[in-house]
Design brief:
By secondary structure, this protein is an alpha/beta fold. The chain contains 16 helices and 27 strands. It has 3 domains: 92 residues, MurE/MurF, N-terminal domain (Udp-n-acetylmuramoylalanyl-d-glutamate--2,6- Diaminopimelate Ligase, Chain: A, domain 1); 238 residues, UDP-N-acetylmuramoyl-L-alanine:D-glutamate ligase (3-Layer(aba) Sandwich); 158 residues, Mur ligase, C-terminal domain (Protein-Tyrosine Phosphatase, Chain A), CATH 3.90.190.20. The strands form 6 sheets. It has a 9-stranded mixed β-sheet with strand order 11-10-9-12-8-13-14-15-16, with helices on both faces.
């Protein structure tokens, strides 16, 4: 692609180099100096930990890059010495420029897809996976981008961020188009919005799941206000906006948006969104939490249809409603998601494994006290005989998190097996000691001998819990969820909680 075509529509100043370079062929776009290649255009991004402008000499000298996109001309108080025969374009925001150039480079693939973005503090992954499954199940080929990776048909690609860099998004949008996808479903994080990773994407629909205080601090958001504002920005890029009417932030999310608005709710019909007619609201009625032959199940009526869900808890009713409302808005109809919902499972998100003798095991990503409390209280609704909890805490994280999770486990689980999570660069025994301190603080009557067992080896801990479980018990394994590794001293060793459970169950018999 010629340089003039790549930067068409971009606001920039031509700072350095011959204008005839507009006819140069650009081989690729890079923003990481380690991946830059001869013939690329290199975009210098300014981050919290590093600055791409520091690598100009390296990418131009060692890598052979001839075209640079920069955000500044001065670094550390000195003018940046651009190498001879280099073309330099100055832009206001490198991330915004990267997003627009990436779309152009791949032929604007988002315009050939119906893109649906999902944002919210919790529920993004489950809602995205449910929607992806429903669309696929009803014959609509769909791509997925989110926490669990990128999925196109049977192909799965792991990614580091919930919402990857704009170049990666556009690259996989292009692959979705090649594979004949009609829809693309993606999780949209507040960081992804703040860092312009979704800039220029024409979303057909955006979904707001809920809002809570999270991701505030260095390298994330400066305040709760900024966090909330970033999430609301998604709905300025959507034709259709769908939100949780039961969340107090619903009106804020759509205040500045001109999209057509829809909602979903689990509360009474008196709860309505501002300016929404009842025909724009999908409500769950007659919600029932019960225990069936295959363990806990939830039923509810919405849109005149009865739905059955084996993913427990009210929060999964909300996630289901969000996905079903999207189907309705797309003209497919919420009833079309009925069969998929019966079999729906999301890896590491209250993922169910049925064991013998009417024992149910759940694997979940809960890795803080609030999430753990939510999951344990949810399971209590179904009146299990006992809840056997297996968990640890990650290393190189706040000690307070360990104490809080320990207190929560002592209060709400019947029996706890304390083990390792990702110890990282800490000693597992020290982490476990902090957890036990929290457990002891929870109640004067708490008895470690009858209520707890310490097994640092996670595989052995899971095996112990599975072996000890009796009919109508629930085994809950939390902390790692979808992760397929355990990080120890900077090395990631293969480990998957799902596989540990299956191995423990087979060995038990």
């Amino acid at each position: 692609m010629k340089l003039r075509e790549l930067v068409r529509g971009l606001e920039y100043a031509w700072i350095y180099g011959l204008r005839s370079a507009e006819d140069w062929e650009i081989g690729g776009i890079s923003y990481d100096s380690r991946n830059a290649e001869k013939g690329d255009i290199f975009v210098c991004l300014t981050g919290d930990a590093d600055d791409g402008h520091r690598y100009i000499r390296e990418v131009c000298g060692e890598r052979g890059v001839k075209v640079l996109v920069v955000e500044k001309l001065v670094l550390d108080g000195r003018e940046i010495p651009f190498p001879a025969e280099t073309v330099v374009l100055l832009v206001k925001d490198g991330r915004e420029a990267l997003a627009h150039m990436s779309a152009a480079y791949f032929g604007y693939p988002a315009e050939k897809l119906k893109v649906i973005g999902i944002t919210g503090t919790k529920g993004k992954t489950t809602t995205a996976c449910l929607l992806w499954g429903m669309l696929e199940d009803t014959g609509h080929r769909t791509g997925l981008i989110g926490t669990l990776g990128i999925r196109i048909g049977e192909k799965e690609v792991p990614i580091k961020n919930t919402t990857p860099q704009s170049f990666t998004i556009q690259k996989y949008f292009a692959k979705m188009v090649e594979e004949g996808c009609e829809y693309a479903v993606m999780e949209v994080s507040s960081q992804g919005i703040k860092q312009k990773r979704i800039e220029g994407i024409p979303f057909l629909a955006g979904v707001f799941t809920n809002f809570g205080e999270d991701h505030i601090g260095p390298g994330e958001h400066a305040s709760i206000g900024e966090y909330r504002y970033c999430k609301s920005c998604l709905f300025r890029q959507c034709r259709i906006g769908i939100g949780n009417l039961d969340d107090i932030q619903w009106s804020y999310m759509f205040r500045r948006a001109t999209c057509e608005k829809y909602g979903f709710s689990c509360l009474s019909e008196t709860v309505t969104g501002e300016g929404l007619g009842e025909d724009h609201v999908l409500r769950a009625k007659q919600i029932r939490f019960q225990t069936a032959e295959e363990g806990p199940e939830t039923t509810f009526i919405a849109g005149g249809e009865e739905f059955t869900l084996h993913m427990p808890g009210l929060f999964n009713v909300y996630n289901s409603l969000a996905a079903l409302q999207v189907l309705d808005c797309l003209g497919i109809g919420c009833a079309a998601g009925k069969e998929y919902l019966k079999k729906a499972q999301v890896k590491g998100r209250m993922e169910r494994i049925l064991l013998k003798k009417k024992i149910v095991c759940y694997i979940d990503y809960a890795h803080n006290a609030m999430s753990l409390e939510n999951v344990l209280n949810t399971l209590r609704i179904y009146s299990p005989r006992r809840i056997l909890l297996v968990f640890g805490c990650g290393g190189n994280r706040a000690k307070s998190r360990r104490l809080e999770m320990g207190r929560t486990a002592a209060r709400l689980a019947d029996f706890t097996v304390v083990t390792s999570d990702n110890p990282r660069f800490e000693e597992p025994e020290k982490i476990i000691e902090d957890i036990l301190t929290g457990m002891k603080e929870a109640s004067p009557a708490w008895d470690a001998k009858s209520s707890c067992r310490v097994i640092p080896d996670r595989a052995k801990a899971v095996a112990y819990a599975v072996k000890e479980a009796k009919p109508f018990d629930v085994v809950l394994i939390v902390g790692k969820g979808h992760e397929t590794y355990q990080e120890i001293q900077g090395v990631r060793y293969p480990m998957d909680d799902h596989e540990l459970v299956e191995r423990a169950e087979s060995n038990r018999w």
